[in-house]
């Protein structure tokens, strides 16, 4: 279990530093065809996988990614805990 | 392939939201049934709950295996989330990233796998503004239903005729192409752009991204199975 979590964190950090920053398939198609502007820009706690007050991009995205991993793990862990508690 | 708000007509978005809720409800029920068992009488007696309670409605309790299944879902979700951050270059100025639908359903079965992808999409939308809110249903239909749920049955069908890793690869490629087609259809029907043009452009890119999805899925499934020995693919 621990090693999958560590692997996920490693992938997130590598992604933060080495992932391509080009638009993905859908964004590129929308750009080429000229309807990208129809998309509504939204902001959120960690918009574009970055922490608002950390300006070093790689570090910012690494932390955002790691937080995301723990939010997701927490969601499933909490579900298991809830079901177990309910069983008494 | 996360659609932002604005690309899809609100009526279509809400319709797909309804469809997504129905599919996820169905999958959640299936998973709940799989991870729990009817509480045996001994368990009640041991818990000192008295005989009267037994006459009431039967309760389902989480099994040991069920608990492990939920932890496995969390791990697959974390892995898919991290892997989706890794955009790889595809073509001039274009990148692609894993969807992970086939990865999830091969490791967890169709119901748990679909929930895992939907959970990742919901977290991405809420916390990272990756993919819209109103179009969340559309994104779930595209990537969790077509990309995971339906692709599972392609994988199962292919496995009868070809090797498992080959089935994973082909199903993964199909999952990306199906998700791209569904996305194109939604954009086209919304009147955002001509359906035929969007579909052709989307296919052209995602036929390539699908190849990467196939390779990464085969590799990550191997890695996951090495790291987490468990029964595979039980729903």
From TrEMBL, chain A:
Keywords: Cell membrane, Membrane, Signal, Transmembrane, Transmembrane helix. The keyword Nucleotide-binding does not apply. Residues 1-21 form the signal peptide. The chain crosses the membrane at residues 63-83. GO terms for cellular component: plasma membrane. The keyword rRNA-binding does not apply. Residues 5-84 form the PDGLE domain. It is found in: Cell membrane. This is PDGLE domain-containing protein. The lineage of its organism: Bacteria, Bacillati, Saganbacteria.
TrEMBL record, chain B:
GO terms for biological process: transition metal ion transport. It is found in: Cell membrane. GO terms for cellular component: plasma membrane. It is a multi-pass membrane protein. The keyword Cell membrane applies. Pfam families: CbiM (PF01891). InterPro entries: CbiM/NikMN. The chain crosses the membrane at residues 12-31, 70-90, 102-127, 133-155, 167-185, 205-224. Gene3D superfamilies: 1.10.1760.20. Signal peptide: none annotated. It comes from the Bacteria. Keywords: Cell membrane, Membrane, Transmembrane, Transmembrane helix, Transport. This is Cobalamin biosynthesis protein CbiM.
